[in-house]
Amino acid sequence: MKTAILGLSAYYHDSAAALLVDGDIVAAAHEERFSRRKHDARFPTHATRYVLGEAGLRLADLTAIAFYDKPYLKFERLLETYHAFAPRGFASFRQAMPVWLKEKLFLRRLLWRELENCDHGGTGMPPPLTRSFPATSRPATGGGVERRSWLAAGRRLRDRRERPPLLFPEHHLSHAASAFYPGPFERAAILTMDGVGEWATTTIGAGDASGIRILRELHFPHSIGLLYSAFTYYCGFRVNSGEYKLMGLAPYGAAGSDRVSRFRKLILDHLVDLRSDGSLLLDMSYFDYATGLRMCNDEQWERLFGIPKRAPESELTQPYMDMALAIQQVTEEIVLRLARTARQLTGCNNLVMAGGVALNCVANGKLLREGIFDEVWIQPAAGDAGGALGAAYAALHLWKGERRRRPASVTAGGKPNHALDAMKGALLGPSFTDADVVRLQRRYGAPGRRIDDFDELC
């Protein structure tokens, strides 16, 4: 009997599905690739159908289904935070609670309702995605016969005896599992950094043949990810999608200038109490994200930095470029200190990373050049989408107790070969033949020509 585990992430941003069969990644995909909605947070209906179809499985064939965080623990954090900041945050509380009381507290029931719409009875995927899953439908169910087949399978699964276990590993454990288990190292330090999961915002752990151990945690509201997102917001970009723009803006800052130095000093003197081990405390009087509807207190930031919040899509001027560089430098310093602490705590020569902050490739490059670790491997889907894969790995190795395979990438000399990690080049989503491309081109009358010699494109 094959061990098949479905991993899911949803309801925050970048929802996704991933499927492991006997420890091998069969398929994984973002929901946005099907729905054409950037950072789609809805349940990954299309992605789930796709990964099940790739394996020819139905829900009843699965060993387990794993969701990438613990909703009750997240709800506890929300309640304790609102209580701690009361009476501030009532508007945010009033907005958040109906969703939790109606849906998110009953996530198990909600997930099963959505999953029943995904089951295709093991018949494989219906015909081409572009025809079966129009972006405007929700949920897309294909033709009438296919719809009846899926709903019939769903009704059968309402018999609880046929349902596979539904598991809820913690958010940062899912990130840690996504970084360690498909990575190329037999033993590694694990560093996860993002905005927030349930309580944790940063973790340091270690992975080896026995499993994953979380050694240190930083808790909400103190967060390197939310700090970076606050600057993303203040520089006029959209939170949870514009952080890469802030990172891209930083090189245009005037390195070594008085303004960059002043901004950096203001951040470290007023916003962030940065400790030697990389842990940090934020002065929450400057931030509004814990209980408010904004990332920061705009008026206090303007008094501190001397520039107003930039309006979205307005001209990018030098002060905002300098601000982007200052927070990038602070972020890099935090990452380096956390990495040194991870090396000290674990004694490992190699590091794996995940979480949204691990997508800051400029900081990653500096980390690599510092030589704190011999090798560094970063989960390609480091954000919440990769949490679906991590949840599946956590279920396989930590819940079911399956021993991790020795990474195929470790050669006889013990040196890791990154080309042979378990991610298969991260090419895990739908593929399309030349005939599929031509068919779509004809359907929409799109101009195009076939290129057989790739040198022509250079």
Q: Which features characterize this protein?
A:
41% helix; 458 residues; 16 helices; alpha/beta; globular; 5-stranded mixed beta sheet
Overall description:
The strands form three sheets. The chain has a five-stranded mixed sheet with strand order 3-2-1-4-5. Mean pLDDT is 88; it is low at 121-154. It is built from 16 helices and twelve strands. The chain is an alpha/beta fold and 458 residues long. Strand 7 and strand 8 (211-219) form a beta hairpin. Helix content is 41%, strand content 14%. Helix 13 (318-346) packs across helix 14. It is globular, with a radius of gyration of 23 Å.
List the total number of helices. Answer: 16
Largest sheet: 5 strands, mixed
SSE sequence, one letter per element: EEEHHEHHHHHEHEEEHHHEEHHEHEHH
Based on CA atoms alone, the radius of gyration comes out at: 23 Å
Lateral strand order in the biggest sheet: 3-2-1-4-5
Which structural category do the helix and sheet elements fall into? alpha/beta
For the termini, the CA-CA separation is 49 Å
In terms of DSSP E residues, the strand content is 5-15%
Mean pLDDT: 88
- The percentage helix is 40-55%
How is the topology of this model organized?
Elements: E1 4-9, E2 16-21, E3 24-30, H1 32-35, H2 45-55, E4 64-67, H3 71-85, H4 90-102, H5 107-116, H6 129-132, H7 144-157, E5 166-167, H8 171-180, E6 188-193, E7 200-208, E8 211-219, H9 224-234, H10 243-249, H11 258-271, E9 272-274, E10 280-282, H12 298-305, H13 318-346, E11 350-354, H14 361-370, E12 375-378, H15 384-399, H16 434-444
Parallel strand pairs: 1-4, 4-5, 6-11, 11-12
Antiparallel strand pairs: 1-2, 2-3, 6-7, 7-8, 9-10
Helix pairs in contact: 8-15, 9-13, 11-13, 13-14
